[in-house]
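Recall that a protein's primary structure is simply its ordered list of amino acids. Everything else, from secondary elements to tertiary packing, is in principle encoded there. The following example makes that idea concrete.
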Amino acid sequence: MNDITKKPRYRVTAGRALSQEQAIDMRGKLFYQQLLRQDTDEILKKAGISRYALKTLLTDPDIDQAVDRRTEELTSSLYTLMPSEGAVAEFVYGQLDLHLEAILQGSIDSKLYGYDVAEMVWGKDDKGRNAVAKMASKPIAWFEPKANGDLLWFPNDGSQSVTISNQKDYPFRYLFQQHKPTYLEPKGKSLLSRVYWLHYFKTNG
């Protein structure tokens, strides 16, 4: 596996994705690593579940409908760049046309789970300019925001975590969104955790 700490720009210029570095092996090393990481959310700590496991709440028809409605409202909203004319604005509009859905989905997910990390893979556009070719959110279980502002990435081989926010090309490789983070809760406020017990008692009587 490539050491992304030694070649921080390699996968950006080569167009490789983090998923190529983070394929989860069958030995479950990532699972055991998660056991050593305690969430800062008091509700999740009392429930004994991980933040990533909150995705199961989306199987509830009422919760799923509310999330879908908010997503539709957000994606249908209009936006304007200032200034809205010129070569730069035209380029940014073009990039947003390609990746706005991924950006907005990451924004929704950051509110649902507290944070979201999307990886950007770079390439060339039809005019030969450097541009984002692909953007996709990665599992939040791969990452951990810290109180000092650092963002850690946990390799699946059980090795020490990597502070990717210290890498030189971090602003160009990742879109990191958080919802109301604090020093005591750097992972952000998760809206799904706030309805966890309501969902639990609804489904378990």
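Residues 9 and 169 are 6 Å apart (CA to CA). Strands lie at 115-124, 130-138, 143-145, 151-153, 162-163, 174-178.
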